[in-house]
Amino acid sequence: MLEVALQRKFPRYPIQLPLLYRPTLPTVNNKIGAGWTRDLSERGACIELAERLPPEVVVNLRLRTDRGPIQTDARVVWTGERTPPSGGIPHGMSFTVISPDQSQALRNLLLPLSLTPHAGVRLPVDLPVRCQPMSPPGATLQGRTGDMSRGGLLLLLPEALCPGTALEATLHTATGPLSVAGVIVWAEPPERRRYGRSIRHGMQFTSLDWSISLYLGLLLAELA
C-alpha cells in the first residue's frame, strides 16, 4: 500500500533525457558512463545503461535537460533484461541525495509534463551536419543542427527537402563524424522562410541501434 501511495504522490512521466553517471564508492568501477532515462519522477527514475550495475549501488547522476543539468545521487533498486529495440539495460533508481535547488529544478521540469499526454524534450545542440538525400536521391547539403532528442533532429539547411525524404545525416562532432539514418517529417512552410536564412526541417531517426543511441546520449550529456 505504501508503494502505491508513493506512486500516486510522485507519478512517473515518460521522458527521455541523456545522462552521465558514476558510482560513488571506490570499491566499484568508478568510470563515467552514459545512458538515457525512460521515465522520471521527483523520487526516482528508470534509466537505460550499457552495463548492469549491482543492486544497492549508489551513483551520481547528471541529467541533461533543456533548462540546464540536474545532478543527484541515486541508488539501484532493481535491474531488468536488455530489451529491443533500444538495447539498453533498464535500471530502477531511487534518488538518495538531492540538493534543494536541484529538487526544485526537477519539479520545474516535471510540472509541464503533468499537463501533456506525451513528453518529449529536445535539447539545443549546434553541430555542422552533412545531409545526403537517399530516397528520392539528391545533392548533398551542408547545414547545422538546431536541437536533438533521442528520436530526431532539427536540421537547418540551405535548401528545402520535402517531407518523406529519406536521408543520411552525418554529424561532425569533436570525436569524429557520426552518421544516422532518418526521414524528413516536416519542413518550414514557404511563408515563414526568410531570404538568406537556413530552412528548418524536422528529421525523425529511422534506424538507431543501442551503440549510436548511447553515443548520442554521451554527446548531449557532455554538452550540458
Keywords:
3 helices; 224 residues; Thrombin, subunit H; disordered N terminus; 14 strands; 6-stranded antiparallel barrel; single chain; alpha+beta
Q: Can you describe this structure?
A:
This protein is of the alpha+beta class and 224 residues long. It folds into two domains: 2-113, predicted glycosyltransferase like domains (Thrombin, subunit H); 123-208, Beta Barrel (Thrombin, subunit H). The protein contains three helices and 14 strands. It has helices at residues 2-9, 100-113, 210-222, and strands at residues 13-14, 18-23, 33-40, 44-49, 58-65, 68-79, 89-97, 123-124, 128-135, 141-148, 152-157, 166-173, 176-187, 199-207. It has a six-stranded antiparallel beta barrel with strand order 2-3-4-7-6-5. A hairpin with a 5-residue loop joins strand 9 (128-135) and strand 10 (141-148). The radius of gyration is 19 Å and the shape is elongated. It starts with a helix and ends with a helix. Mean pLDDT is 88; it is low at 1-8.
Summarize the entry for a quick read.
The chain has 224 residues and is of the alpha+beta class.
**Order of strands in the sheet with the most strands?**
2-3-4-7-6-5
Beta-strand content estimate = over 45%
Largest sheet properties = 6 strands, antiparallel, barrel
Number of helices: 3
Mean pLDDT: 88
CATH class of the largest domain: Mainly Beta
Radius of gyration in whole Å, from Cα? 19 Å
List the helices and strands and how they pair.
Elements: H1 2-9, E1 13-14, E2 18-23, E3 33-40, E4 44-49, E5 58-65, E6 68-79, E7 89-97, H2 100-113, E8 123-124, E9 128-135, E10 141-148, E11 152-157, E12 166-173, E13 176-187, E14 199-207, H3 210-222
Antiparallel strand pairs: 1-3, 2-3, 2-5, 3-4, 4-7, 5-6, 6-7, 8-10, 9-10, 9-12, 10-11, 11-14, 12-13, 13-14
